[in-house]
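Students often ask why inverse folding is considered easier than folding. One informal answer: many sequences map to the same fold, so there is more than one right answer. In these notes we will look at a single instance of the problem. The structure comes first.
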């Protein structure tokens, strides 16, 4: 638009200059004609007054100004409509020449302005076309500095924005493919491990028909555990996929934390008995949070289950919840030795592989599945996604003798009071 305004200003200046020049010339020409005409009249009156002194000059001037044509000149062969008797034709010819010349010059200037403007616009259109062709060829290297201001600058800017968007989509698509490949590789590996163990134990039972009954039942229980691990992993992956595709809708309502913990206790009761780990819950009976009850039970169950799987027989896992000035906090601690420092930033990552078994993190970010039936590095990842999607926040740290998970939910009323004070 700026360049278009520049051309319009130039054309306007040309028009103004032409009007001024033509006006000056017309004024000068008009004054010249008036002077030349008056000189003829003055000469005529002077001649008449000298030849006929008895004629009143003022009456003669009056008659010249008001008398109408009698046609006497036509009788001498003059065409009053086309031929000047006492007027100088050179003045008229000069005026006509200058006027036509001025119009021609203005036309040439306008034509030049239009040609220059059109060439520049075609150049911009060609550049935009080149950019679009480059984008179609997956070349997103457009320099923003080249996009100078002009009539098509808005279009060029939008093309640039579209380029950035497409470039980001292309990069994300490539990264998504890499992530999908890595995820499929991890999933394949994680499913293969328990299935291989199950197949080995099944083969052992088939190859030893006379196996001791207690040994056979032990293998059957181990097979069931491994298949349960596969089922848990598949279900967790399906839930994560639903969260990532934004197909889950949370139904938030005030829910007593005590009711959530009762359901969690029911979910891990068998695991506590099997692992000989005690679950201790402390907190205000009527304390509640605004959340989706079903999904919060799922998240907290995964965290508590993770802690129990890493705890030694005879130890305990404690859950304590309370309210401070702006939030409700749920603290989950175990006595499993803590989380290795290098593992802390990664414990919520899906399929994270710990370099060493330490505390609450061993192989694959969770328990050693061959011994405890753990969750293959998915439980904590799913718990984090659920809690954050439900408006909360979760952190993990190592404490003396164990690990600590902190879940925080902000109090909307407390936040409103804080804003009002400010």
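Output (designed amino acids):
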């Amino acid at each position: 638009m700026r360049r278009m305004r520049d051309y319009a200003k130039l054309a306007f200046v040309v028009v103004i200059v032409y009007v001024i020049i033509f006006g000056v010339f017309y004024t000068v020409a008009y004054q010249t004609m008036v002077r030349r005409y008056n000189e003829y009249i003055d000469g005529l009156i002077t001649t008449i007054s000298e030849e006929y002194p008895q004629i009143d000059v003022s009456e003669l001037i009056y008659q010249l100004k008001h008398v109408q044509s009698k046609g006497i000149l036509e009788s001498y062969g003059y065409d009053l409509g086309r031929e000047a008797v006492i007027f100088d034709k050179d003045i008229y010819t000069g005026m006509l020449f200058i006027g036509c010349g001025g119009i021609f010059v203005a036309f040439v200037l306008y034509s030049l302005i239009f040609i220059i403007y059109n060439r520049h616009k075609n150049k911009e259109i060609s550049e935009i076309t080149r950019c679009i062709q480059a984008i179609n060829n997956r070349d997103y290297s457009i320099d923003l500095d080249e996009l100078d201001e002009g009539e098509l600058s808005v279009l060029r800017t939008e093309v640039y924005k579209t380029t950035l968007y497409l470039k980001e989509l292309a990069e994300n698509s490539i990264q998504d493919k890499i992530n999908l490949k890595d995820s499929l590789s991890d999933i394949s590996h994680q499913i293969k491990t328990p299935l291989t163990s199950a197949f080995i134990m099944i083969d052992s039972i088939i190859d030893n028909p006379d196996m001791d009954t207690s040994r056979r039942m032990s293998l059957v229980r181990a097979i069931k555990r491994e298949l349960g691990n596969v089922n848990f992993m598949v279900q967790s992956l399906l839930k994560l996929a639903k969260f990532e595709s934004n197909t889950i809708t949370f139904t938030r309502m005030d829910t007593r934390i005590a009711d959530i913990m009762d359901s969690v206790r029911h979910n891990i009761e068998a695991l506590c008995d099997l692992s000989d780990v005690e679950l201790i819950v402390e907190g205000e009976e009527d304390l509640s949070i605004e959340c989706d009850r079903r999904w919060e039970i799922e998240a907290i169950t995964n965290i508590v289950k993770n802690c129990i799987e890493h705890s030694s027989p005879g130890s305990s896992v404690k859950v304590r919840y309370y309210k401070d000035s702006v939030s409700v906090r749920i603290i989950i601690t175990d006595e499993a030795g803590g989380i290795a420092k290098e593992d802390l930033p990664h414990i919520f990552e899906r399929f994270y592989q710990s370099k060493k078994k330490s505390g609450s993190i061993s192989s694959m970010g969770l328990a050693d599945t061959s011994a405890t039936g753990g969750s293959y590095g998915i439980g904590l990842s799913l718990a984090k996604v659920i809690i954050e999607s439900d408006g909360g926040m979760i952190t993990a740290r190592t404490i003396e003798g164990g690990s600590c998970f902190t879940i925080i939910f902000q109090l909307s009323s407390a936040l409103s009071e804080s804003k009002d004070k400010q």
